[in-house]
Design goal:
With 137 residues, the protein is mostly beta strands. It contains one helix and twelve strands; from the N terminus they run E-E-E-E-E-E-E-E-E-E-E-H-E. The longest helix is centred in the C-terminal third of the chain and has 4 residues, at 116-119.
Length: 137
């Protein structure tokens, strides 16, 4: 069981701990990413973007291979063409890879939302009345 917000890690992106909103109303997970720049490495598309501001850490750039690019509806229901990366999610003592779209979430309270596709098949229950139930180790 997890709450509507949890501490998670994205270690492949160098993010060891950040708060995320668990959003079962969203299909796709989304990470705040500024100054996105596409480039090629080894014949594959990569993206470089400014990482979300984490407590006690300076802002830095992250580089990741692009898994795909697709239309995703924003919070207003308007489709946007977004880059999607695949990365490791740490939630409590569980770890698995998820797809994360890169979006401008500057106006949002959480820099990361975890959508229902990331939770599907993981036997996770979300208690919307509670927060921070998982122990990130």
């Amino acid at each position: 069981m997890i709450g509507w917000r949890e501490l998670i890690g994205l270690p492949e992106l160098g993010i060891l701990q950040m708060a995320a909103k668990i959003d079962t109303g969203a299909r796709t997970s989304a990470l705040h990413a500024e100054d996105r720049e596409l480039f090629e490495r080894g014949g594959k598309r990569w993206v470089r973007f400014k990482a979300p501001k984490l407590k006690g850490e300076p802002r830095r750039f992250i580089e990741a291979p692009v898994a795909l690019e697709r239309l995703i509806k924003n919070t207003s229901g308007v489709p946007e063409n977004r880059l999607v990366i695949r990365t490791l999610l740490m939630l409590g003592n569980h770890r698995w890879h998820i797809d994360v779209s890169l979006a401008d979430r500057d106006a949002m309270k959480f820099d990361l939302i975890i959508g229902r596709t990331a939770l599907k098949g993981r036997r996770i229950l979300v208690d919307p009345a509670r927060s921070y139930l998982s122990d990130l180790r």
